[in-house]
Every structure is written in C-alpha cells, then in structure tokens.
Amino acid sequence: MLNDLSYRLKTPLAMSLVIVAAAAVVAAALVWQGYRQASASFVQHTQVLGKTLARTLRPALLHDDVWQAYEILLTPLERSGDAGRTLILLDARGQIFAASEPRQFAVLDDFAQTIDDRAIAAVAQKHDRGQTVLESGDGRYLYLLTAVQAEDGTVLGRLVQRYDQSLLAPHFFDVAEGTLYAALAAMILLLPLGWLAGNRLAEPLSHLAECLGRVGRELPNAIHCEFPHGRDEIGQLAERFQGMVAELRNKQVLEKHLAQSDRLAAVGRLSAGIAHEINNPLGGMLNAISNYRRRGGADPHAVKTLALIERGLVQIRDTVSALLVEAKLESRALTPEDLEDVRTLIAADAQSRQLRLEWDNQIVEALPLPSAQIRQILLNLLLNAVQASPAGEMLNCKLTVAEQHLTLSVGNAGEAIPERRRQHLFEPYFGEGEVHGLGLWVTYQLVQQLGGEIVVDSFPGHTRFRVSLPLDDHAAT
Question: Rounded to an integer, what distance in angstroms lies between the CA atom of residue 441 and that of residue 408?
Fold first, then answer.
C-alpha cells in the first residue's frame, strides 16, 4: 500500500512522523527531567523542614515533654495539610516518643515493630548524626530520617518524616501539562513546515517521474522539462535524463534525415527511369517545330503559338532534368516575357475557379537566371495557390528585384497549413489528409540548385510562399 503512494506524500508524511516522534521523545525527557527536579526540590524542602524541627524538638526530648513534642509535630502539618504526611519522633532507644498520628504510632511502641520495612527500621536504630533519605520497599512511601542532637552532639533521638509518594503527583502533572502544551505548540508549528519542506524535497523527483512517463508517449522534441541545478542524486538523475532526451532528439533527427534520403533516392531512381522516356518524344516535337520554321511558315498567329508551345516543351524537358537533383542547369537568361508567359498559362486555371489574379511584375530587363527553371518555380507556386484558394478569392503574385536578389512572392487566402505538414512540405508524397506530390519538391530542388531559399508563412486566411534567388552570372548561358 505504501509502495503505491507518491513520494510527494511519503516524504512529507515521513517527516511529519519524525517530527511527532521527536516531539514525543523530547516531551517525555522533559517530563522525566521535570519530575526529577520536582522530586529533588521536594526532598530538599523536607530536609530543611527536618533540620528545623530537629532543633525545635530538642528541648522536648531533654525535658521528656511528650505534649510539647506532639504540638511541634502538628504545627507544619496544620499549615500544609496532613494528608499523606506523617511525622514521628523517636528517642535514643528507637521507641516512639511522639507522632502526628498517635493511633497508628503509639507512644513507647517500638518503631521497628510498627512498620514492615526492615531496612528503614534498621536505619532508624542507628545513631547517625546526618540526614538519610530512603524509599520503602513497595515504593509507596518516602522516608527522611534526621538526628536530634544535644548541644554537645549527642544523639537524643531521631525525627522520621514519612511522605506518601502520591504527594509528588501534582508536581508531576503540572510539569507534564506544561511540557505537553509546549510540545503540542511546537508540533502545530513544525508539522506544516515539515510537510512543505518534504513536499518541496520530493517535487523534483515527482517531476522527473512525470517527465520519464512522457518518454515513449510523446515525441522527444515535445518533452521540455526544467530541473533545479545541483550535484545531489536528483540533480544527477535530471542531468542523465536531459542527456537521454537529447540523444533521442538526435536519433529522431537522424531517422528523419534517413527517411527523407530514402524517399529522395527513390524519387531519383524513378526520375532517372522516366527521364529517357519523356525526353525522346519531347525531342521529336521540338524537331518538328524547328522543321516547320525552316519551311518558312508565314502565319504570324501560328508562329506566335508555336513559340509558346516550344517554350512549354523546353520547360517540360528542363523540369524533367530538374527531377535529377544533380542535373546541370542550362538555359537562356530570364526575360520579362518569360514571366508574362506564366501569367498567360495560369490565367485559364484561375478563371475556371473564379479566382482574381493580382499580378505585379516589376521585372523590366533580362536577368542572369535560367528562364526555364524560374518559370517552372513560379508556375508550380501559382498552381498550388490556385488549388488551395476558395472560389471567388484573390491570388496575388509579386515579382521584384532588390539587393541583387530576385524575389518571387505568391499568396492565397486558403486555409492555414498545419505545422506538422509544414515540416515536410518540400518532401515528395508526404501529407496529412490531402497528400501532395512532386510539385513543391521539384520547386525546392530548383531553388536549391540556384543557391536561393524558399520560406512559407501560413495562418488562417493567408498563406504566402516567398522565393529569393541571388543574381549572378553562373546561372545563365
């Protein structure tokens, strides 16, 4: 049962029990010490009384005056009460000369015959000049024997003071009551402090157990636990736990990279297999267009249409090449007309979904970037934006050049991209719910080959892809 309790309960409970036990032991020790002090004080008081009475009773023994001795013995009892107190005056022969209880201790009776305790009777027969304190064999009475001496030191008799041990009970209870009240007050003060201290000591351990319970149920990246710094056992366990979580995170990242590499390798093998099959018919169509031009076709509309078809076929060929990550980029420099071709190609798709296209092309001259790849990047982003936009909304596309970088910005008013999907957005054939294919992966590969970067901002009602490409001379030929 106790093994199932949390240390947040066991530690404060153990500390509380220790406090109660310590308070009980200290209280018992104080009560015992107080009882001993009360007993010592009682004995000291009786010793003083015995010496005083011994001096006062000397004349009565010298003059053989029993009534005077009897009155002297009754005097202290009248002031303090005679319950449990008996005063007996013995002569030099050990016979009773006078007593505060004459019916029990009659005059001239042998004192040794009136009590059952032989040890006390034997001491009473001695002629010691000092005081002797004895306890009866049954522990009921306390005896104090004081010698009554003449002026020359001769022992005239002995004063016997007998006290019932119950007389010490009020002193004991007074001491015990005060001590118990003090112990109770100390426990009332210490128990909450001990409970709080125990709870605080056990809190890091409980927190560590909670964090360990999350391992295996949550991803390592989601486990963030803070512990107080220290070199004690809990601090060392916390340090080992943080190291374990860090290793799990590294393992997760490594597994993610391995999985991504496997997918990319599979896509690469697939691309290499189909590139040949696609490029052969593409080459034939491009040759047909070239032959038509050599025959000198005069229809201007046909020439313009064939030019557009040719650029499209070249773009398809270059896109297939882009699927091969290590393909060399070879294309002519990008012109404003290339970008306007993309606008023409996307217009039909946008119109079919009743979307308004806000187009802002600030490119006015040729740029040292491969035209086919840039057109493919822009077309892929616009096609994704068309698919993600609700009917009747607006697409916006802005093309600018600043600080030796070409920036392509495409936005739509669709739903936000979930965070988990955003982490794998540029991986092929990965998604939650709606699986996306190669479009964004191809876009990412093209951007990487051109030395640029692509970022995504997405929240409800707005998603924007922004591509930034450096302008240098190595991309165009």
Answer: 17
